[in-house]
Write a structure and sequence with these properties.
By secondary structure, the chain is mainly alpha-helical. It has helices at residues 3-8, 12-69. The radius of gyration is 27 Å and the shape is rod-shaped.
């Protein structure tokens, strides 16, 4: 028997409510850990980009001011 044949005789609420709830209960921890890993990775990437951008800004500011002074 195929899954379509099994689900064909079931009421709508079993297909659209009960089965997704069971899947969330069974795989909820895995889904949560994957989502937290992805969000943490994106946060670290954002911090990395901000720090590199700040470093470039500071280096350009100091190199432009020191070259205009000519004594550094």
């Amino acid at each position: 028997m195929a899954v379509k044949e099994i689900l064909a005789g079931m009421p709508w609420w079993v297909k659209w409510i009960a089965i997704p709830v069971i899947a969330l209960v069974v795989f909820g921890g895995l889904i949560t850990s994957v989502l937290s890993f992805v969000v943490g990775l994106l946060f670290k990437l954002l911090i990395f980009v901000a720090l590199v951008g700040g470093l470039i800004f500071v280096v350009r500011k100091f190199t432009s001011s020191s070259s205009s002074r000519g004594d550094w």
